[in-house]
Amino acid sequence: MASLRRALISAHRILKSNQTHFLSSPPSQWPTLFRPQYCWVSRFSTTTQSVDVDFSSEESKRRLFNMLLYRSKQRGFLELDLVLGKWVEEHIYSMDENGIKDLVHVLDLENPDLWRWLTGQEPAPEPVNRNPVFIAVHEKVMSNLENHASPETRAVAGKPWVRGWDDFKKGKDSPITGNQ
């Protein structure tokens, strides 16, 4: 809350001190309010910048691992949080620099697409299918599905999953088992 207050006060001060300057100069010369020091753009926007993989010190390694663990466990998509977070937690400490870069590429994928590709509802694009981290997580998910879910309760490979019940019909015309 204090940082928001400081940012608003700074913005007000800039606007007030440069009010005549704004009116007399072209927009290209206006001072920007969206500087990283005010944390308006840099902290609250998503970018496609690559994560800097730095193994030079134990501290930078620890920070990188913590950031990637957080990103894998807090995606906002419960199933992915559980599956991806657990896999990353088990494997991140044994990864080399290339493995970390591959993990970052997987973490940069959109949640719904990644979930459909991992569960086999849709085929993954070729660049994703060549990623060793994606392949390992996909194998783990498919292995869990084979071992813990009966075939009657699963969708056919390549088909989206559907609900197996209907709250309005109360079971009439619904499948006998599962989500088909």
Automatic annotation (TrEMBL):
Organism domain of life: Eukaryota
Pfam families in the cross-refs: Sdh5 (PF03937)
GO BP annotations listed: mitochondrial electron transport, succinate to ubiquinone; mitochondrial respiratory chain complex II assembly; tricarboxylic acid cycle
Entry keywords, A to Z: Chaperone
GO cellular component: mitochondrion
Entry protein name: Ankyrin repeat family protein
Organism: Geranium maderense
Species classification: Eukaryota, Viridiplantae, Streptophyta, Embryophyta, Tracheophyta
